[in-house]
């Protein structure tokens, strides 16, 4: 090696040593080394039970309560049945956790969370696909409740509840369930609260064998496809509100009663289908349809309502094999509307089967056939009788024009 090369090499080394002499470079190197030790020891603490966190002059032992809780969770996760969590507020034999939030936090998509009998006063938020089922003999054996603005919030995923009671002990403005994404399924479930029941907004609902005793049973908005089958709703105000052009609500074999309102109110182009249902003893019209909404009823009984069977204002109704009796009127029109009525029976209606708000008769398109007790009237005020009651024995059916 030549003298010039050796000299250049020595100069480079000297320059490197000079850089190391810079105080900020030294600080940076120390920080990098420290972070390496800290990360190593943190990983040891996180994944090795009971390990102390040691670095130089630091020697911090984990708090015993935290260490025991971490140890308990590790034991649960390692020993529990895969895909199933058992919740018991008393942590009896075989239980995995004592509360729902912990079970939900550790559950994976598709897991089942079995809840043993008791009252669980805890609000929960769900963003994964899980099933929460009561382990009691009936839904009344297991209650999930809270006193906040909502007991259950569903953000995404498919969430199912089975054999359980969902409640809220807050004031009348509180909700039991609020779903703003994903979908929610209720099977053999009771919903009880002094306030509201289910709020479905930009989410889907599938409810079977559900009993609801609330101020309002269901509110559906946004983009939603909701179905209720074999459901009973007893509400204080209007039981169901459906609003929005992307709302599709199907009710099958559903019984609805409202103390102070209507059974169903549909507006803003929502579509509601009702089959094999009973809408009885409502304080107002059993079904209210307005603002471009559409209601289709088949094989449904509408009886003992203080208002009309249906009240339509700017909407459309389609009735087939519907029995409307003991109410103020069969179908009342308060604005431009469309009605198609077939094979239906009208009886004991104080204003008759059809009633118009004064001056709206010419704005209503009314079609139908094969009805009993229905005579489509000429334009008249809502206070006038529109027709007679159902024909007496031996009389022929009146066909609507």
What can you see in these coordinates?
With 401 residues, the protein is of the alpha/beta class. It folds into 3 domains: 64 residues, no CATH class; 127 residues, 3 Solenoid (Pectate Lyase C-like), CATH 2.160.20.10; 165 residues, Pectate Lyase C-like (3 Solenoid). The protein is built from 4 helices and 31 strands. It is elongated. 35% of the residues are buried.
Short description, anyone?
The protein is α/β, with parallel strands linked by helices. The protein has helices spanning 3-21, 23-47, 64-79, 100-106; strands at residues 53-55, 58-60, 84-87, 112-115, 118-121, 124-126, 131-134, 142-145, 150-154, 158-167, 175-179, 183-192, 196-201, 204-214, 216-221, 224-235, 240-243, 247-252, 255-258, 264-267, 271-275, 278-280, 287-290, 294-303, 310-313, 316-327, 331-333, 337-342, 345-349, 354-356, 364-369. The model is unreliable at 1-20, 37-60 and 379-401 (pLDDT under 50).
Low-confidence stretches: 1-20, 37-60, 379-401
Radius of gyration, in angstroms, nearest whole number: 33 Å
* Share of helical residues: 10-25%
User: Would you tell me which CATH topology of the largest domain applies?
Assistant: Pectate Lyase C-like
- The CATH architecture classification of the largest domain is 3 Solenoid
Total individual domains = 3
Distance between the termini: 115 Å
The oligomeric status of these chains comes to single chain
